[in-house]
Design brief:
Layout lengths: L2 H21 L3 E7 L4 H7 L8 E8 L4 E8 L9 H5 L10 H4 L1 H17 L8 E8 L7 H10 L3 E3 L1 H14 L1
Parallel strand pairs: 3-4, 4-5
Antiparallel strand pairs: 1-2, 2-3
Length: 173
């Protein structure tokens, strides 16, 4: 599959996810870059790290809740693999750094909240929740992945969850 066609699929999936979140009362922002300080980069063990990018932020004012989401369509791949999400790294590495490196997660999410608070888009009481919305999960691993995510109090929408939300939306229309 061409890279351009694959990007159209990714954009379409992100558009669907954004619409579903907006209908649940969230405002959504895509491709949010977090500006780490040099000290924060030292804390994560990568002094020359590029700005971390969070695929999608979703803020619910009534709940004062901010979702920091990885949104992965994963068309033409085996999908998200449980083993990838279960990795543990002291220094962030791999595709799912926010999930697999506790230090990285703590530093990036704290900086995210500080930056949003400084911009008047959040406050010190805003609850930040990490999450994954997957368009494809490796065969037969959705429930094990859901259990892993719940263990860590992370949000997870499986492909079936996304399909069910789209179907429910169609019934309401």
């Amino acid at each position: 599959m061409s890279e351009q066609r694959l990007m159209v699929g990714v954009d379409k999936f992100e558009n669907i996810v954004a619409l579903l979140l907006e209908e649940e009362g969230y405002w959504v922002r895509r491709g949010f870059k977090v500006s780490l300080t040099q000290d924060e980069k030292r804390q994560i063990g990568k002094t020359s790290a590029p700005k971390p990018e969070i695929d999608m932020l979703a803020y619910h004012h009534g709940r004062n809740e901010l979702l920091a989401l990885e949104v992965k369509a994963y068309q033409d791949t085996p999908g998200v693999k449980l083993a990838q999400m279960q990795e543990v790294h002291e220094v962030p590495t791999g595709r799912f750094k926010l999930f697999t490196s506790e230090v990285y997660r703590r530093v990036v999410l704290a900086r995210l909240l500080q930056d949003l608070s400084a911009a008047g888009m959040a406050d010190a009481q805003t609850q930040v929740c990490l999450g994954l919305i997957a368009g494809k999960v490796n065969q037969g691993q959705s429930e094990a992945l859901r259990a892993h995510m719940q263990e860590h109090s992370w949000l997870f929408w499986s492909p079936d969850d996304v399909k069910a939300k789209v179907a429910a939306r169609s019934v309401q229309a």
